[in-house]
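#lab-general

N.A. 3:47 PM
ok so I finally got the sequence cleaned up, no stray characters, all 659 residues accounted for. can someone with queue access submit it? mine expired

B.Y. 3:52 PM
send it over

N.A. 3:53 PM
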Amino acid sequence: MSEKQKKNLSAAPAAPGSSMGNGSAADVDRIMKKYDRESNTRIWTGHYRTAIRWILTGFSLWCIWVTLFATFLEEIRLTSFMALIVLMGFLTYPARRGEQRPNYMPWYDIVLTILGTGSYLYFTFNANTIIQQGTRFTPLQIVIGVIAILTLMELTRRCVGLPILIVAAFFLVYALSYGLTNPAFFGRVRYLVRNLFYTKEGIFSTPVNVASKYIVVFIIFGAFLERTGISNFFIQLANCVAGKFAGGPAKVSVISSALCGMVSGSSVGNTVTTGSVTIPMMKKTGYKPEFAGAVEAASSTGGQIMPPIMGAAAFLMADFLGVPYSNIIVRAILPAILYFGGIFISVHLEAKKLGLHGIPKDQLPHFRKLVNKIYLLLPLVMLVVWVSGNYMTMQRAASYAIVLSVVVSLFDRENRITPSKIIDALEAGGRSSITVAAACGVAGIISGAITMTGLANELVNGIVSLANGRLIIALVLTMLTCIVLGMGVPTTANYCIMAATTAPILIRMNVPPVAAHFFVFYFGIVADITPPVALAAYAGSAIAKSNPMKTAFTATRLAIAVFIVPYVFCFSPAMLLIDTTPVAVVQIFITSFIGIFGVSAALEGYLWTHMSPVIRILMAVGGIMLIDPKLVTDLIGIAMIAAGIVVQKAAAKRHPAAA
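B.Y. 4:20 PM
back already:
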């Protein structure tokens, strides 16, 4: 979360029912430092602060210029990009949490900064020579490559965390011990370093390439969008749409988190940003603390699958699949609606079960005032139009959208973007790019090690053989792999790893490539709310002051749709608009929604009145039957859910007091 967001949260008037009170910015900062490594940064003041500020700002301007106008070698672009990431990273992130001495940088960090940045710049300034020398590398060049790899991994440990490093270390050790065939150890080291650093099969593979071309520019766009006040606009809009209904604050949380999350691309950051407003509102209304925290965590995590932005991983998916970005966002619409529809059903039934009301009408914002600020959406709308209509490249569209966000801010006196705010946005964009780029670099190391050792093919063959032709077994095993490897790993890096390792398993099982990549993308995201490493849920619990593990399990229950929808579009790609007709799309959407309704109601244990265990099982099994979209299973599933509804309605009539 940016400093701007924290200031807005503390300066903004309290939301209806808010209990954050004074010091909300301090609470936000504390929670972010605990659950989000990106927030554990060095403290720079005075001239040092100014120097760091201009380095980060210059990086953002350089990235925009390079993506629009640069014509030099790709190797030069990628290596110089990573050199700047390493430089900014060590200047921003200390070795340990809690290092809060102002203007302090220990000698070993200075050494790491010089060595790490220098190793990448060596490649930048000798790119032509390195490309032409083929496989003949001197010992000094191998040492430089080793330094580059190790400093990148250390930076990733600081700003991302240990889980992704454990995965990377495992594959590197495997490559050096068993995976590579060269009998001499130093021969294996030479081969590994050459492929990971001096080719496009490792650090400079697809993830870093996409990050430098597209993702960074969109991150900068998001930073500018923040300063137009769009997050507050989304929250107020959600209040207008759903605030007055039963359990209104929870529904506001679902809508606002979906809208804010698609721009932020961070489950934890989005949970804390919108949750500092919505969670106290939910608790005030009558929701239990763990339920309030879980609603925010599940909704914020789902923001990354919400088109049109979908966080950073959507750009990677488009590049991996070789399809236009507009193709990805169109296919993501129906699954996103089902995901948030499932959460909506759960919060509505919980509100009915507890007898909760909405926000009083006199505390809701006036829709007419919001309409006057509808122009804030213009940069997002035009971005979608420019990209989906193929009028220009993604990076050019994002650059124009940045300019447009500055223009629309001029019409809002409260959030007008001044030259100082422009510098703030560029600085925030540069700082936010560090984590994404570092994670993408390590993901490239992992995928490179897997590819050069042939481990990916062995993994694919092993799971395909274990599945023995049964798609459901392959899907379950892939899901478990994604969730385990995704724990504590940023979505972008997790998707890169899964795209290289587990997506080919599903493709081998005749799942369409788009569906396979969406499947691993979804289950990589859900790791943020799945125990035991459910960082978004833990951040939500910190705001709600609830039990972290209970909050995580509740968030998993609320997000049950994300455990159903990916199976549906693997069995029936019609949901992703693949080789289908409008009638088939409508059919699969309706049956899937009924299935999610059945499972959500069963988990909630309430419809018009409390359900008996038998009816809950009936509804749950009926919903699960609708995962496989065949006529027989659909009819059986719908019949079971219909029977449960009839019994519940009859029970409510017999015992109106209980209902």
